[in-house]
Amino acid sequence: MSQIGSNIKKLRKVKGLSQQAFADLFSLTRGNISSYEERRAEPKIEVILQIAKYFSIPVAQLLEKQLTVNEILNFEDYFEDSTTLMAAKNMSAVPFIGRENFLHANRKIDVTNMPKIYFPIYHKQNFLALENCSFIPKPLIFPFEENAILFFEPVEIAILHTLDQHYGVYLGADELFFGQYQTNGNDIELILNDWMKKGFAAEKKSYFWKLYGKFEKVV
């Protein structure tokens, strides 16, 4: 029996997409997605190929097996499916912001409602993971590959002296961009370009993050 319907549903859930948002990706209707998930119909082969290409999942897996979260996110064994997450005691739960979060221009990023990935990072602070994608503004020179997952630690007063020339991300109420920190005496700025920069202030430190590391899948 084809697993395409259940896999479409799981893809939606993992990526945080409504039926309508998923349908919009492939020029379908919400009714189409509903019928696939309820196994009342199956998508045409050209639609299956589009879904497989968009999410970088082999067609055979999409059709024949029940995908795990690991396979959907394409990040090897660091990501576990829902049956084993509770056993990941030695992993950190990291909020993950992927490109699907930017499909609608008016959709605000709420870190508290982001899906979590489990990764072997150990730190007293919480981390944030972002997929480097074209939707996030970045400096002209940004030495990270498209689709690489970048991990950030929050900027605390104790690490201000380490920020100069390091990359970071600004995640405010209505703004998100990658930038590079520059310091001048006690002044610290996260700079996207000559026209867009944010000065660090203690009362807004929750908006500022420092790059901690990256994860890049080798294929």
Give structural notes.
The protein has 219 residues and is an alpha+beta fold. It folds into two domains: 4-67, Orthogonal Bundle (434 Repressor (Amino-terminal Domain)), CATH 1.10.260.40; 78-215, Ribbon (Umud Fragment, subunit A), CATH 2.10.109. The chain is 22% helix and 23% strand. It has six helices and nine strands. It has helices at 4-15, 19-25, 30-37, 45-55, 59-64, 69-73, and strands spanning 92-97, 116-119, 128-131, 149-154, 167-171, 176-184, 187-191, 197-199, 208-215. It has a nine-stranded mixed beta sheet, with no helix packed on it. Helix 1 (4-15) packs across helix 3 (30-37) and helix 2 crosses helix 3. The model is unreliable at 75-88 (pLDDT under 50). Keywords: DNA-binding. InterPro entries: Cro/C1-type_HTH, Lambda_DNA-bd_dom_sf. It holds the Pfam family HTH_3.
The total strand number stands at 9
Largest sheet composition: 9 strands, mixed
Total number of domains: 2
User: Residue-averaged pLDDT, rounded?
Assistant: 82
Write down the secondary-structure element order.
HHHHHHEEEEEEEEE
Question: Strands of the largest sheet, in order across it?
Answer: 2-1-3-4-9-5-6-7-8
Alpha-carbon distance between the two ends = 30 Å
Uncertain runs are 75-88
Structural class by sheet pairing and helices: alpha+beta
Shape: elongated
Gyration radius from CA atoms, angstroms: 19 Å
Protein name: Helix-turn-helix transcriptional regulator
InterPro entries: Cro/C1-type_HTH, Lambda_DNA-bd_dom_sf
Keywords: DNA-binding
